[in-house]
Amino acid sequence: MENGGSPSTNTSTNPEIKQVLFNAEEIQEAVKRIGAQISKDYQGEKVLLVTVLKGAFVFMADLVRCIEGDVEIDFMAVSSYGSETKSSGVVRIIKDLNAPVEGRHVVIVEDILDSGLTLKYLLKNIQAREPLSIEVATLLFKEGKQQTRIACKYIGLPCPDEFVVGYGLDYNERYRNLPYIGILEKSVYS
Ligand code: IMP
Ligand code: MG
Fold first, then answer.
1. How many CB atoms lie within 10 A of CB 11?
2. Model pTM?
């Protein structure tokens, strides 16, 4: 295969991507690191990964394969964005978990922690179901953007204050399929 725009490079052939932030290898390194941490922290225990759809589906698929031991997965879908690029703080549950989490060790798997308003809502909501423990794993962390303090134990990669897409993250449902994470050209959404 020719190399043009291959996931191993830091360039994109997509003109709508201003800059590649993390290529596939860099993402996998971060995912492996989080997987190893979770494997170690829950050794001998069962852990339930709760994925926040849709953005975190790619991260979850890779993360679960980097965890050794007894792991189960469940999904929740929330909406806080519509087609905008700013969090509204209004979170709506579109799909709830299939099974109760009472008495279980839960790790919430998120794609990106931006304002933190989505996670604040989710943590409160899941906490009310009385899990044994609850932690957060986020692939990307937008520094200095949090409007609320979130205790996030597992953090993959730092993200600048830009709108990013790829590896599950979308703008208007597009770009989730990119194997890398890149900054979207402003002209696409302004
Ligand atoms: P928060 O409530 O502001 O923390 O936003 C959380 C959600 O907004 C994430 O789970 C993403 O779905 C979405 N989001 C925030 N920033 C970005 C971005 O840069 N690109 C794509 N989606 C984003
Ligand atoms: Mg999301």
1. 15
2. 0.91
